[in-house]
Amino acid sequence: MHYWVRAFASDFSGTPPQPRSGHTAVPIGKSKIVVFGGLLDKKFLSDITVYDIENKLWFQPECTGNGSDGQVGPNPRAFHVAVAIDCHMFIFGGRSGNRRLGDFWVLDTDIWQWSELTSFGDLPSCRSFVCYRSNGWSYQLLDHYHHLDAATQLLWLRKGCLSLVAEVVVGQS
C-alpha cells in the first residue's frame, strides 16, 4: 500500500525550491527528482532544483549549455511539459508572459548540460498547458497530437500511432 507522509524541513537538508505553480518535477532514475521552471508571484522561472532521494538533500546544480540565442538553457517558463528518459530531461513548450513557446531542450543530468534541439520531423506549434503520456496503449480520444519517438531517434510525428515506447504526446494548442 502507498500513502502520503508529510515532509518537514528537519527531514532533509539543502534549500528546497521556492513555492511556485506551473512547474515540472520529473524523476531521474531512482535517485533524483528535478524541478524546473514555473511561476512565482507573476515571475516566470528557469531555475533547476534537484532533490537527491538517497541523501535527502536539495541542491541547485551549476548548468552549462548553449542555445540558439546564446543562452545557457531554456528561457523562463511555466505550463510546459518535461519528460525524463534515462539521464535526460526533455522540455517542450510552455508560456512566458503572454507568449506561447515552441522550443525543445534536453538537460543531461549526468553533466548538467543543456542543449537546444532542432526539430526532426513535424515539430508541434507553440503551445502551453501541454501533457505527456508514457509507455503502453491508451484508449484516449485525441483529435490532434504529436509523437516523439525517443527509442530510436528524436523524430516528431504528427498524428503518430500508439506504440510501446516512451513518447511525448502534445495536445491541440
From TrEMBL:
InterPro entries: Kelch-typ_b-propeller. Gene3D superfamilies: Kelch-type beta propeller (2.120.10.80). It comes from the Eukaryota. Keywords: Kelch repeat, Repeat. This is Galactose oxidase/kelch repeat superfamily protein. It comes from Gossypium mustelinum (Cotton).
